[in-house]
Structures are given as C-alpha cells and as structure tokens.
Protein: Aspartate aminotransferase
Amino acid sequence: MSNGTIHAETWSQVPLAPPDSIFKLSAAYKDDTFPNKVNLGVGAYRDDDNKPWVLPVVKKATKILLEDPNLDHEYLPITGLPSYTTAAAKLILGEDSPAIASGRVSSAQTISGTGANHLGALFLSRFYQFNGDKKVYLSDPTWVNHFAIFRNVGIDPLTYPYYDPKTIGLAFGAFLDTLKSLPERSAVLLHACAHNPTGVDPSREQWGQICDVFLAKGHYAFFDCAYQGFASGDLDNDAWAVREFVRREVPLLVCQSFAKNAGLYGERVGALHIVAPTVETAGRVKSQLSVLTRSEISNPPAYGARIVSLILNNPELFDEWKRDIKTMAGRIIQMRKELYKLLTEELKTPGNWDHIINQIGMFSFTGISPDQSQALVEKAHVYLTQNGRISMAGLNSHNVRYFAESLDRAVRGDL
Ligand code: KET
Structure:
C-alpha cells in the first residue's frame, strides 16, 4: 500500500452494475420533458388522469388508524401483526380452507411480495430436501427479479417453457412435458394469476392437468401471487389455482403482496404462507421463519399491515375494497378494448392483436421485437420494457390514441 499506510477496502474490485431494467424506465420517464410521454414500464396502477390512485378504502382505514387513541409505534412480533397475517392467509387460501381449519398454515409478514419471495426462497434454500443441486424452475419468461432473488440464496434458477411467441399464448404442451421430465420433487415457481409479463394464465382445466403432474412427480409449488384481484376483478376467482392445489394437497407456499391490489406499493405489505402437512410441522416451519426474519429485518413494518388488517377484518371496508379492485380491473379491461379497437378497426395495424383483449391482469405482452420496443422508448417517448411488455394501467383515455399510433408506426417500421 502506498506511503506505508494500510488502506481499508477501497472497492476497486466492485464492478459497475447496470441499472434495474424496470426502475430505470420510471426514472427516464420522470426526466423526459416531452408533453405526450407515456409510462408503460413499472406495474403500478394509474387513474384515467395518469395519477397514482390512493384507494378510497385505504383513506378510510388510514383515518380510523390515526384516530385510534391506542396507536403506538412499538415493534410488531417477529412474524408480523397476527390480525393481518391471519386475515391475509384467509384471503388467499379461502375462508373455508382445509389447511387453515387444520392449523397447517405458517404465515409470516414480509416486505411486500419481493420480501415474501425472498423469505420463501431462503426457507427453501435452508430446509428443502432438494433432489440433487439446489434449483428452481421459473416460467420463461417471468418477472426478471425472480432470477436474482433465487441466486441470492444459492438456488440456481432454470426455466420451463411457458409462452409461445407464435400464438402469443400459453405453450401448454411444452410446459406440461417439461414438468413431467423434471426430476422428482423439483421446486417450480408458478404465477398464481395474471402472469407477469405475459398476461397469459392457464385455464382451470389446464391448472388441473398441471396439478396432476405436480402430484405424480412430487413437485413443490412456489406460488407467487402479486396480482390477486387484478386478473378477473374478483379476489376469490383469482385465488382459484392456489386453492385447488391446496385442496389436492400439493406441497406448496404462497407469496402474497398488497402492493397492487391495495395500491400500497411503497408501504411494503406482504406475507409468506407455507402450507405444511401437519400442525406439528407447521409449528416447526413457523419457528424457522421467525429465526430467518429476525436476522434480516428483526420484525416487519407496522403501518401498511395495520391498514390492510383493518380492511380485511371489517366487513364494510372489505366490501368497499372489493369495489375499488373492480374499479381498477375494470379500467384496465376498458383500456384493452380501446387499444384493440384503435389497432384493428382504425389504424389497421399489421398483425393479429387479439391477445390485447385475451391477456389478463396488469400487463400485456405485445409481441413486438426488442428493436421496436426501443424505438418506442427513444423516438416516441413511450416507456416500456425491452421484452415488449406494457403496463395497461399506464394507458388512459387521453394517451391511448397516441400510444396506438406510435405502436402502429413502430410495427410498420415508420418510427
Ligand atoms: N411478483 C411479481 C410477479 C411481480 O410482478 C412483482 C412486482 C412482485 C412479485 C413484487 O412486488 P412488491 O412490490 O414487492 O409486492 N412487479 C412490478 C414492480 C417491480 O418490478 O418491482 C413490475 O413487474 O413492474
């Protein structure tokens, strides 16, 4: 070391990492001064005036919370606010869930859906009896962060076929064949509903066949549920696949997020639910979730969980929330219809655009090439991920025409 001085680590070995592919779009959009710019990048709901929407039911719950004379800022228990985790488990697994009734669900409050994925992956990494090396199978494509989340805990992420670019739909045959060919007891990540980024979900009949293979092969289902309510506008409907797997006793866990369906993005409200085979196992699992959580975050943040707990445990607020979800899902469906109409009837954009109305949830996978996506970003000020995913929630009655026209030009190579 120079001058005989001993230096502490100076990070000369740290490589510069590229910015996050989704969040960099939000930043670029913010900096863009073009008046007609459109943000279709991050999956965050916007109202028809392109404003973030604080759900009316969240405003009500906040008021109740703030007026509560007993409100304090003490630590929550390590695995979270019990009134929240219990109600959250019921929301995804169902009021009459056999797993809840028999006390086999271990729940932990997490830092939103990302934290649930992380804790679930960490738990698997520590305790799952992998058949060989630690591997998880992810849909191709999937939410990009899944890869990093599993790598972080020493699980190698591999993919299974899911999407067929030719049909812009589910590659069901290849998906099922791959599930059958994986080693027994493989860990497989499934999107519970409103698949990100494709907007393509299996039908109930297809879920049934997927479930058959999971049972036959003893696979472990790692469900990620970040969009309950956003697929169909109905919370129970969107939880169907998870509940069916529980009913048929596939070993599984569920990662849950209230970022999107309650508009609580920044409050980081999530939960991990592990369904165990017996009450006794559930107790041991929960004890380990507690140990893992303690070392990472000590205990989760209280505010968002209190809001969601109020909403889930008060029948009036719960009904109001369901109406708010319908408002969001309904506006997105409306935008799908308008975009489809503009592309097919008015602009007569080359290609088939049926997938715009057939795909569900917050996203649409347009099927355009990375070059066309880039042209939209660079020349039309329309921000979307390179894979051609658009967040439908970023469209509204004011910008849908500009977007349709820009997409039309990109497809024709005129941008
Ligand atoms: N799972 C999926 C499938 C998902 O799309 C997201 C977020 C999450 C989990 C985590 O969300 P959280 O806010 O931690 O509850 N997706 C959007 C935002 C992001 O990338 O973080 C997105 O794809 O735009």
